[in-house]
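Checklist before submission:
- one chain only
- standard amino acids only
- sequence pasted in full

Submission:
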Amino acid sequence: MDIKDYRISPWQWVAFIIVAAGLRILTGSFWMALGIFMLLLLVDFFIVQWDKKRREEYESIFTQYDRKKKEESEQESVEENENDDQQGKE
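Returned file contents:
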């Protein structure tokens, strides 16, 4: 995911502001709240990367399965055609 392609929806902005204000009130320090908020964003980034990798692996497994099934069905149709040809000659 390229940072240029990342778009923040209005609801995400609202959530960020609520979390930031809550951290500011809870910690009593702007810098402590900023540090915690940055750590939360970092954790979010790694979760998104992990989920993206997991989805790609999941999709590749099904792509391989679909390809294998397609090859098997093509092989079966070729064998059926050969059997039909042999029966037609007899």
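Reviewer check: The mean pLDDT is 79.
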